[in-house]
Amino acid sequence: MADLDALRARWTRALEGARTPAHAPDGGPDSGPDACPDPSPYAENLLARWQEPQRHYHTLTHLTSVLDHIDVLEKHAADPDVVRLAAWFHDAVYLPDRSENEERSARLAERALAEAGVPEDRVVEVARLVRLTVTHDPADDDRDGQVLCDADLAILAAPPSAYAAYTAAVREEYHFVPNDAFRDGRSAILRQLLALPRLFRTPYGAAEWEATARYNLAAELELLAP
Question: Which of these, 132, 133, 145, lies nearest to 77 by C-alpha position?
């Protein structure tokens, strides 16, 4: 069960961190969130979205996991608070039968964060990161993209029981897809992932998660074979 109060506090810290211009002196006129809107309504809107009934994997548990993994990878990010905000928004719009979830989530981030007092350059970066989760293919010099994508894919390296729960939850989200079609589609995704030279782009992810993730993917692919 997700800790809602803890998530609210994490949202507020990330938002207030991103509101502060990166080079503003402490205590300067642009360095504090005092004149900005209250973070609470934004948190409540996002928390409600992440608890929608059509979600079975893309839930508050997933959001918490991504935020936890960003904490692990923080030293690899250029702007960790921006990455955290991107995590909050990356599946904020989620309908399993729609293909434009990431784009709609990015647009939501653009509207909400601009209103919430985040500087324009960081709003643009959050939206870019959200859109990057379509492909999970950050450039070699995209430190923030690498951290977000690794954190989002870290479930692939979960222990066997947690990985089984993940695959069951994904199947439940796509309950409307016939079994044969789901098996074929899921198998194609797994083959694409296994064909990548690297699943994880941060040094930590490559060292700690790559081998386990590949084992899990191969095992699931074998189970899906007719």
Answer: 145
